[in-house]
C-alpha cells in the first residue's frame, strides 16, 4: 500500500459545515439517562447479534 499523497497547500484546515438558518442543537440522546456502563456494548454482543442475522 502506498502512503497517502501530501495535502495540497490551503487544504485540510478547519471545516465549516453549513446549517440551515435557525438550526439549533437537538435534545439529549434517548439513552442519556442511563449510566455509562449500561450504554456500552461489548464486541461479543455485536458479533453474536451479527451471527443471528
Notable characteristics:
mainly alpha; 53 residues; 2 helices; 25% helix; 0% strand
- Strand fraction equals under 5%
Q: What does the largest sheet look like?
A: none
* Helical fraction: 10-25%
Rounded radius of gyration (Å): 20 Å
Sum up the overall morphology in one term.
flat
Question: On the 0-100 scale, what is the average pLDDT?
Answer: 88
How does the helix and strand content classify structurally? mainly alpha
Unreliable stretches (pLDDT < 50, length at least 5) are: none
- Note the run of SSEs as H and E: HH
Query: Number of helical runs?
Result: 2
**Distance between termini?**
33 Å
The count of strands amounts to 0
Architecture overview:
The model has no long low-confidence stretch (mean pLDDT 88). The chain is mostly helical. The protein has helices at residues 36-39, 43-51. The radius of gyration is 20 Å and the shape is flat. The protein contains two helices and no strands.
